[in-house]
UniProtKB/TrEMBL annotation:
Coiled coil: none annotated. Keywords: ATP-binding, DNA replication, DNA-directed DNA polymerase, Metal-binding, Nucleotide-binding, Nucleotidyltransferase, Transferase, Zinc. This is DNA polymerase III subunit gamma/tau. InterPro entries: AAA+_ATPase, DNA_pol3_clamp-load_cplx_C, DNA_pol_III_gamma-3, DNA_pol_III_sug/sutau_N, DNA_Rep/Repair_Clamp_Loader, HLD_clamp_pol_III_gamma_tau, P-loop_NTPase. GO terms for cellular component: DNA polymerase III complex. Residues 397-414 have a biased composition (Low complexity). It catalyses: DNA(n) + a 2'-deoxyribonucleoside 5'-triphosphate = DNA(n+1) + diphosphate. It comes from Limihaloglobus sulfuriphilus. DNA polymerase III contains a core (composed of alpha, epsilon and theta chains) that associates with a tau subunit. This core dimerizes to form the POLIII' complex. PolIII' associates with the gamma complex (composed of gamma, delta, delta', psi and chi chains) and with the beta chain to form the complete DNA polymerase III complex. Residues 391-419 are annotated as: Disordered. GO terms for molecular function: ATP binding; DNA binding; DNA-directed DNA polymerase activity; metal ion binding. It is an enzyme of class 2 (transferase). The keyword Transferase applies. Residues 37-181 form the AAA+ ATPase domain. The gene is dnaX_2.
């Protein structure tokens, strides 16, 4: 006798047996009890969640010969129930929408629908993947679907309801089948293994449920493959060997090396994974999964959000403290960004290694408060330097001598990666603030360029030693908005620059633009000789040559 796969052998036979779809089952049972069964249903959901199974159970409930009327508990023993289970019942017609998608097929359906069922109460049409029907086929079905004969029921199943015409959906009762919870899949897989008298490790059931990704059928198919290996009991080694799944413990070790800045270890681990047969794409996807679990733990998420074995939970908890949540999110986004390039590129290994080295050497994200503290202590590093462990060890690189780099060209180590120190401008009144305003905004711009440039568009108008009012012209609303949105940061920086706690208030003033225009107009009457003299100034020439710049305007220096 031919072998029957687990997904068919353990297919649910009643409403109560369907895993993870209690709401749909209960609604259909209530409709049968109340004699309010619709003439058309649309079952929507991803693959393997029980759409076709539910359609067959509903067909058995309506046509079970052991009862005089539809029942919520079909016997599964009468000729009708047995024939429906095998897909051979003459009155329950299962149609594949992908291969019967033309208008001619729908015309045949309409002609056959007018005839009464041969032995059952209803003639039931189950159309799987109904979204594959052409628009003309949908339109041909509309009239029959709206006013079908009393003895006809339609049950449509689809994984893409968005492709089903709205006119079709409006004539059906729609049920959305949810993805099945991993815990429910694991429980069902355990029952199947117990029925088959096969020993198993609970971690294997958890791993298969995770791999099923919400699909009961996928989970049973994977379990069937493991059982076919002949291993008894089933353990994680069998799972990894038979399915070729990456060892999550090694992926966790790889991420641990990333968190500890071990560039040499990262390259070695990647090499080992690739040598063991993993593709770059598999490594990327496995790393994303582990990082997702780390993100949930770091964010304090519920354990229900994690589908992990006991060993995996312990491993995640041991390395998650090396990362902050912003770094984890950044790593996930970076890995996702190279998923397609790694799949298609001829240099996939180089892309993979480059990304993991980038993650290893990148600075962890820091908040504003920590940023200010680092500014105060003069230890704000833009990025991590290569660690001492990252040294060329290849014989091919041994010819590179330290003497080749002259000591004169080496920058001062103390100044590498450090922001300029903040200068303090002690201002007792408004005049002193105005006189130092350009220097103040320049100092702020050296730390926060955007804020410095925006604040430079303003003019101080009032200062009493504690509160500073600055005015923007009506044409500078955008710089004012930037400063307003970052008002806390502006107050913090200006307090440090002015040497005392300062509150800053922003306002629009028409006079500011007039004053600026007046200052600009001072240079409008320059003679050609004066302009040439200004351009020949030694300081101007030095700046234009050093920065490859050009002079765009000449203004008189304010007194």
């Amino acid at each position: 006798m031919a072998y029957t796969v687990l997904a068919r052998r353990y297919r649910s036979q009643s409403f109560d047996d369907v895993v993870g779809q209690d709401a749909v089952s209960q609604t259909l049972k209530n409709a049968i009890d109340a004699d309010r069964v619709s003439h058309a249903y649309l079952f929507c959901g991803t693959r393997g969640v029980g759409k076709t199974t539910m359609a067959r159970i509903l067909a058995k409930a309506l046509n079970c010969l052991s009862f005089d009327k539809p029942t919520t508990e079909p016997c599964c023993k009468c000729d009708s129930c047995l024939a429906i289970n095998t897909g051979e019942d003459i009155d329950v017609i299962e149609i594949d929408g992908a291969s019967n998608n033309k208008v001619e097929h729908i015309h045949d359906l309409r002609q056959n629908a007018i005839y009464r069922p041969a032995r059952s109460r209803y003639k039931i049409y189950i159309i799987d993947e109904v979204h594959m029907l052409s628009n003309s086929a949908f339109n041909a079905l509309l009239k029959t679907l709206e006013e079908p004969p009393d003895h006809v029921k339609f049950i449509f199943a689809t994984t893409e309801p968005n492709k089903v015409l709205a006119t079709i959906q409006s004539r059906c009762q729609r049920f959305d089948f949810k993805s099945i919870e991993p815990q429910e899949i694991a429980a069902q897989l355990a029952r199947v293994l117990d029925s088959e008298s096969i020993g198993y490790d609970s971690d294997v059931v958890t791993a298969v449920a995770r791999l099923a990704n919400g699909s009961m059928r996928d989970g049973l198919s994977v379990l069937d493959q493991l059982i076919s290996s002949g291993a008894d009991p089933l353990d994680m080694k069998v799972f990894e060997d038979v399915l070729g799944e990456p060892d999550r413990d090694r992926i966790a070790s790889l991420l641990e090396m990333v968190g500890s800045d071990d560039t040499s270890g990262v390259l070695g681990m990647l090499d080992g994974l690739l040598r063991d047969g993993m593709t770059p794409l598999q490594i990327v996807e496995a790393a994303i999964e582990v990082l997702r679990d780390m993100m949930v733990v770091k964010a304090g998420g519920s354990e229900k959000l994690l589908i992990l074995t006991t060993a995996e939970k312990n491993r995640i908890n041991s390395i998650v403290e090396q990362f902050d949540i912003a770094s984890i999110i950044y790593a996930i986004a970076s890995l996702e960004k190279i998923r397609y390039p790694v799949k298609e590129s001829q240099s996939a290994r180089a892309l993979l290694e480059a990304l993991f080295l980038r993650l290893t050497l990148s600075e962890h994200f820091i908040g504003v408060n920590e940023l200010i503290k680092r500014i105060d202590t003069g230890r704000l590093n833009v990025k991590k330097k290569l660690t001492d462990s990252f040294k060329p060890s290849s014989a091919g690189l041994s010819s590179l001598k330290n003497e080749s780099v002259s000591s004169e060209s080496s920058p001062d180590k103390a100044s590498c990666g450090r922001q300029p120190e903040m200068q303090t401008f002690t201002c007792r009144d408004l005049d002193e603030v105005v006189n130092n305003w350009q220097n103040i905004t320049n100092s702020l711009g050296a730390i926060q360029q955007r804020l410095g440039l925006s604040l430079a568009k303003s003019q101080p108008s009032e200062f009493d030693g504690q509160t500073l009012k600055v005015q923007f012209s009506a044409s500078d609303k955008m710089p004012m908005q930037i400063c307003t949105h970052a008002s806390d940061e502006v107050c913090t920086y200006l307090s440090k620059l002015l040497g005392s706690k300062t509150t800053v208030k922003f306002e629009i003033s028409q006079s500011v633009g007039t004053k600026k225009q007046a200052r600009r107009s001072k240079g409008a009457g320059f003679s050609r000789q004066q302009k040439e003299q200004a351009l020949q100034d030694s300081g101007v020439k030095m700046l234009t040559e050093a920065f490859k710049a050009r002079v765009v305007g000449i203004h008189l220096k304010e007194q």
